[in-house]
Amino acid sequence: MARWLWIASALLSAVRTYLVLADRQGLRDQVTSVEPTLPMQQVEAVVNGEIILAVLIAVGIVGLYVLVANKMVAGRAWARVLLTFFGVIFVLLGGLGMVGVADGLAATQGLSVDPAEVALSAVGLVVEVIALAAMWLPSSNTYFRATAAQFALPPPRQDQFPR
């Protein structure tokens, strides 16, 4: 179950990225607010570069999540630790972001808050918390112990190293 939750979390993040990138005018406005003297042709080039880079990063993140989640299902403890590490960081940062939105901090900083992005972020936080919990349930611990035993080297035979 945790594998699919991690993959769902990555896909939700990709959908959020798509929503941000779909607002091309918003991207143009951001570029012109940073560098108002740029001609429109250069603004479009910067926006195109942002979109391409964001899509490549989103695809890479989804691919990485799928790879590590599959390694976790295969019983690799390092994958569970890695997902836990990043999951805790993302939950803490996402929680802080939600607090900032709820307190109106984002609005006071002049940031526009899209309700669809906030909803996807909230759902993503819930999915990641459930995935974190599912990875560390007693049944998951038993599974990881059992698969770790499969990867352990057998003890050397007595006749293997003659004296």
Folded structure, characterized:
The protein has helices at residues 2-22, 24-34, 40-73, 77-102, 105-108, 115-135, 138-151. With 163 residues, it is an all-alpha fold. The chain has one domain (2-137). The longest helix has 34 residues, at 40-73. The chain is elongated, with a radius of gyration of 22 Å. The termini are far apart. The mean pLDDT is 87.
Count of strand segments: 0
Overall mean pLDDT score?
A: 87
User: Which percent bin holds the helix content?
Assistant: over 70%
- The secondary-structure element order is HHHHHHH
Give me the number of helical elements: 7
Q: Domain count, please report it.
A: 1
Low-confidence stretches: none
Fold topology:
Elements: H1 2-22, H2 24-34, H3 40-73, H4 77-102, H5 105-108, H6 115-135, H7 138-151
Helix pairs in contact: 1-3, 1-6, 2-3, 3-4, 4-6
